[in-house]
Specification:
globular, alpha+beta, 4-stranded antiparallel β-sheet
């Protein structure tokens, strides 16, 4: 009896600190501006490919603490990306594609980035084996961007910069940051990130967006050190608000904010005012709030968690004494 061939890969999510919003080329997923992110090593997607003798590729969920079912549109997008990679390797074999995340999907934690990165990695591994071809890491990241633009940043740890045809890590003096995401809403969002990219172009504020992000990006790149932490906080705070204001001023307008989102942001602002220190704060296209802390701020981060978050919201983090909260 022949052994069933399987290939499994996992890749982390990443949170953009300087966002790309809008696309120069929608078909090729070429962004309107450069983007800059932090890789979230503890929030991962897993994808397994199993070779089988069916007539077409198909998707199934993998078992997870956060089970989900892809919509037909989601399945088509996922499997079309696999098809793209198979054509790249010139193979025609069929696969059962299984995937899962260890965090909630489609709610502003960049599950698209991690899932397409994991799909790309597993597909390159499987197709590379079947076609007896070596895998190029950078080529793999660029191909991943065809499925989900932000996924190309999930192939490196730490800070990552994406600029159209180039993507790669950025060194800093900040060391490894600690991450929390406050889950104020775990339901699937009504407006997908892909749709948001299209809708924001109707906002009168979209004109000038590229210049604003480029200015903020340069400020961030110039201040990746502990002494400039408050400056980073201010610039990145302004950046995520800029993106969400585009949503609010699109035609028709839409929003990811909830009353609980505003509560968390208000608590963070007061925390900074009280301590003259705190986390970098950002949000993706969703209601949930991401916090990044320096390693030497771990006690400060735990204080914020114990005083304001514990028992109130679900918190996913890589803090040693917090971990994956369950509220």
């Amino acid at each position: 009896m022949n052994e069933v061939k399987k290939w499994t890969e996992e890749r982390p999510s990443n949170i953009a600190l300087i966002k790309y919003m809008g696309k120069k080329d929608k078909a090729l997923n070429i962004p309107s501006n450069r983007s800059f992110s932090w890789t979230l090593d503890h929030l991962k997607s897993t994808v397994q490919l199993e070779l089988y003798d069916g007539s077409e590729d198909r998707w199934e969920p993998l078992e997870s603490d956060f089970p989900f079912e892809l919509s037909q549109v989601g399945k088509d997008k996922f499997l079309n990306h696999l098809k793209r990679i198979k054509e790249h390797f010139k193979i025609s074999e069929k696969f059962i594609v299984r995937s899962c995340n260890n965090f909630p999907s489609d709610c502003g934690i960049a599950s698209s980035a991690s899932s397409f990165a994991a799909l790309t990695a597993a597909s390159f591994k499987a197709c590379g084996d079947l076609a007896s071809q070596k895998i190029d890491h950078v080529e793999m990241a660029k191909m991943s961007a065809r499925g989900s633009g932000s996924s190309c940043r999930s192939f490196w740890p730490g800070f990552v910069l994406w600029d159209e045809d180039t993507v790669g890590p950025v060194a800093s003096d900040l060391g490894k940051l600690k991450h929390m995401v406050v889950i104020v809403g775990g339901e699937a969002k009504k407006v997908s990130s892909s749709e948001a990219h299209k809708k924001v172009e109707s906002s009168l504020l979209f004109n000038g967006r590229t210049q604003r992000t480029e200015t903020r990006l340069q400020l961030v790149l110039d201040n990746l050190n502990p002494q400039s932490w408050e400056k980073l906080y201010q610039v990145i705070w302004a950046e995520f608000w800029d993106m969400h204001v585009l949503f609010e001023t699109s035609t028709p307008h839409f929003s990811y904010f909830t009353p609980e989102t505003f509560r968390v942001l208000s608590l963070l602002r007061k925390f900074w005012e009280t301590h003259a220190d705190g986390p970098i704060v950002t949000m993706d296209a969703g209601p949930n709030v991401h916090l990044l802390w320096r390693a030497d701020q771990e006690e400060l981060g735990e204080e914020f968690y114990q005083s304001h978050l514990k028992g109130e919201w679900t918190v996913l983090s890589d803090f040693a004494r917090i971990g994956f909260d369950r509220v």
